[in-house]
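Quarterly update from the structural biology core.
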Amino acid sequence: MVFYVVKYTSSKAEGNLSLDRDTQDKIDVLKQNSKQNDSIRIYPFNPNFISDYKGYTLGMSVEEIDRLHAFRAQHKFVNNSEEFQKITHVSDSLLKKISPYFKFPEWAKNKSLSQKKIPNATFQRELDLQKGDFQVKDLNTATAEDLKSISGIVEKLALRIIKFRNRLGGFIVDDQLYDVYGLEPDVVKRTIKRFTVLSQPQMEKINVNSASVEEISKLIYLRYNIATKIVEYREVNGSFSSLDELTKIEDFPIDKIHRIKLYLTL
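Predicted structure, tokenized:
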């Protein structure tokens, strides 16, 4: 008796490596976020008033931002690109990239101002001038009526801004206005010419290594399910050694990490 053995082979060649779809999806999200970060538009600004967040988006290091803030704490101003680099020690390549957007007010043409201390009253006046020919108001104390003076902010949006501010416990940086739902970027730009954070809110940062799900979820940027995943991750992997480690958590809002870090501690 003769036996015939029939061997079936797949018509599609399979490699030794298989695609981890979940991992690939996460990589795609990170790539997309990276593209978005790389495409951040820069608008003209006065480099004397660079915040931590603004400095980060420009590509400055923490040390470079701290040098500028230490210089400004003496009520001194930089009046041109060369002085900015001298104070901050930014690289030539970064200076070349951001200096075309530097916008200095008229008083900055007097170079002697950068070499002497300016009285507090004058300092506030110069802050007002660089924002426009009007008195700048505190974003953290502005009323709905105040905000409605901005073209594009109606009653509903004004109340939404205040509600968002209350849930935050107060704005820490002006750019948080971009996080208010329904507030168009052009309206935000008009708003921060008239309103800025003049008084920092008093708040206690949330310790991600000890806080409960309920405590973490109080932060407006973190939904309850994300707070749950943070605590679960901590229980499995131990305490966080860096706030950037939060980005490893599934569904974490990576694009908001630099806002979120303002409210957290280890």
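The beta strands are 137-138, 195-196, 206-207, 264-265.
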